[in-house]
Amino acid sequence: MEVTVYILHCSDGSYYTGLTKQEIEARVWEHNAGTYDGYTSKRLPRRTRLTETYDRIINAIARERQIKGWSRRKKEALIALEYETLPDLSKRGPVRAE
């Protein structure tokens, strides 16, 4: 079973992170149609910014939780595929040698 973790860019400029077992296009359609009451029902997503596919749902859940805990800047670095900058954008900052 494939599970997709995704980041949507919403109409208010915010980002929404979720996961789905269905095709991403169908899930985004549900968000835009307001099928479920929640975060995106009032912030209609403009577009999908990132998708990652996992074979195991437990890995997808862990990744979704990880991304949800990140700052906006860190999410934007991930979307831009700037992986090398992610450690510097952590809340505590990089570990520095003294």
TrEMBL record:
Which residues are the signal sequence here?
none
Q: Does the keyword Hydrolase apply?
A: yes
A Pfam family it matches: GIY-YIG
Query: Would the keyword Hydrolase turn up in this protein's UniProt record?
Result: yes
- The GIY-YIG domain sits at 1-77
Q: Which UniProt keywords apply?
A: Endonuclease, Hydrolase, Nuclease
Q: Which domain of life is it from?
A: Bacteria
A Gene Ontology molecular function term for this protein is: endonuclease activity
- InterPro entries the record matches: GIY-YIG_endonuc, GIY-YIG_endonuc_sf, UPF0213_domain
PROSITE patterns named in the record: GIY_YIG (PS50164)
**PANTHER family, A to Z:** UPF0213 PROTEIN YHBQ
Name the family: Belongs to the UPF0213 family.
Q: What is this protein called?
A: Putative endonuclease
